[in-house]
Amino acid sequence: MSDTKKIINDPKKVVPELLEGLVAASHGSLKIVDGTTAVIRSKLTEGKVGLLTGGGSGHEPLTGGFVGENLADGAVCGNVFASPTPDIIYEAIKAVEKGKGVLNLVLNYAGDNMNFEIACEMAEADGIETRSVQVWDDVLSASKDKTEDRRGIAGMVQALKVVGAAASEISDLNELERIAIKTRDSLCSVGVAVSAGSIPETGEPTFTLAADELEIGLGIHGEPGVERQKLIPADELTDMMVDKLLADLPFQQGDRICLLVNNLGATTTMELLIVNRRIRQILEEKGIVVYDTLLGTYCTSLEMAGFSISFMKLDDELQKYYDMPARSVAFCKG
């Protein structure tokens, strides 16, 4: 056993206990689907397309923290870094279905994709229409011509903001799916780490780095990155990360973006602000407009020390939904 410390009770009860705490923090706006590790809004509107998200735990406040007004209607939470099982997803689909079908917005990982697909087949057999859109914003995990192989990381936060707001106005499942795909395709992210998180049941780190090393392009479940190198100053590191993002969509002068500077678990706000300073300098030089900035802890990998940067390119349609007010335990806008 390592000397990594966590303030928990029984490691096997982490997920149900964190969900109980989440529901308590919601002051009545959330509830747990009986017999599952899925959390949904307590009051759901009839005739609304349901928006469901989910995945493994260990990324808090994602995903359960983003269930709320003009955000997700429900989130299915698996064990730490493990996909929720099809039966739990199926129960959550039934719980958020209010007559117009259900859209699943899912991070692009094999286990999540497979289990959501099985659950959708079960729901379809009950007459519930479903669609699934995978978020694959990690530009370093696969090349541009293989976007469907890319991992989903913190861009999911921006996707939930836009698609959740759209779901409050759009009552057609196919149209909401179009907005979700458009939002997904407007996102790109890249992350780095200087130390790993550790699994509650073992206390062991998901990977190890020397004191003077950093990992580039890591996954949020502790998957190895694409490159390991010596630690470099914040500005130099930020330059490298922003260069990779700007080349991906690509971006050009006059574009509007929503910027997310995300703490992966153990990085201080001081460090994030230093990174944000450099990002803004670069984007001002390029003539790219930062319409809004999200900076803080949104999508973690337990106590991993590191951060990710996400850009979401906005047009008038996406900006309209981004601007709509939203409220959940982890997120408040407007």
How would you sum up this structure, described in words?
There is one protein chain. This protein is an alpha/beta fold and 334 residues long. It has 2 domains: 11-186, Rossmann fold (3-Layer(aba) Sandwich); 187-323, Hypothetical Protein Tm841, Chain: A,domain 3, CATH 3.30.1180.20. 31% of the residues lie in helices and 24% in strands. It contains 8 helices and 14 strands. It has helices at residues 14-25, 86-96, 110-125, 155-167, 173-184, 234-246, 269-286, 316-323, and strands at 30-32, 38-41, 50-57, 74-80, 102-107, 130-135, 187-195, 213-216, 227-230, 256-263, 289-296, 305-314, 326-327, 332-333. Strands 1-2-4-3-5-6 form a 6-stranded mixed sheet, with helices on both faces. Strands 9-8-7-12-10-11 form a 6-stranded mixed sheet. Helix 2 packs across helix 3. The chain is globular. The protein starts with 13 loop residues before the first helix and ends with a strand. The mean pLDDT is 96.
Structure described in brief:
With 334 residues, the chain is of the alpha/beta class. It has helices at residues 14-25, 86-96, 110-125, 155-167, 173-184, 234-246, 269-286, 316-323; strands spanning 30-32, 38-41, 50-57, 74-80, 102-107, 130-135, 187-195, 213-216, 227-230, 256-263, 289-296, 305-314, 326-327, 332-333.
